[in-house]
Amino acid sequence: MFRKMIPITAIAVLMLTGCGETPSETADDVSEAREDAAQDITATREDADQSINNAQGDVVDARQDLVRTDRNAVNEVTEAEAEVMTTTAHANYDVAKAEAEGRNTVAQERCDAFTGASKDSCVSEAEMTLASAMAVATSARDTALVAAERH
C-alpha cells in the first residue's frame, strides 16, 4: 500500500510546485511506475490464481461426493460451480483493476513531462481511460456474478 502512495505523493508535490520534470526524471518516474504496476499486477494475479485453484478444488471435492452420495450431491456440485464462477468473477475483476490502475499510474507519470493546459489534458485523458477500464471490469464482473447466481 505504501508503494502505491509514493507515486501519488510525488505527483501531488509536483502539481503544487508547478514545475515540470526533466525528460530524464519523467523517464525514471515512468520506469518506476511500470515496475510498481507490474509488481501489483503479479501479486494480484497470484492471489487470483490461488482463489481460483481453491474454488476449483471445492468442485473436485463436490464431484467426488457425487459419486459416493445421493441426489443432494448434485446440489453441492451446482453450488460449488456457482462459487467458482463467483470467485473467478471477483478474481478477474481484481486483476483488471490492478492492470487499469497500473496503466493509469504510468500515464500519470508521462503527464509530468507537460505543463499547463497540455498537462491538464494529459491527466484528464489518463483519468478518463482509467474510468472506462474500471467500467468495463465492473460490467464483466457483474455479468459473471449474475450468471453464477442463475447457475
Brief digest:
The chain is an all-alpha fold and 151 residues long.
- Alpha-beta content class: mainly alpha
Gyration radius, rounded: 21 Å
* Overall average residue pLDDT: 88
Largest sheet: none
Termini Cα gap: 36 Å
Task: State the low-pLDDT regions, or none.
Answer: none
Please tell me about this protein's structure.
- This protein has 151 residues and is mostly helical.
- The protein has one domain.
- Helices cover 91% and strands 0% of the residues.
- It has four helices and no strands.
- Helix 3 packs antiparallel against helix 4.
- The radius of gyration is 21 Å and the shape is elongated.
- The two termini are 36 Å apart.
- The mean pLDDT is 88.
List the helices and strands and how they pair.
Blueprint: H1 2-17, H2 23-68, H3 72-111, H4 116-150
Essential attributes:
151 residues; mainly alpha; elongated
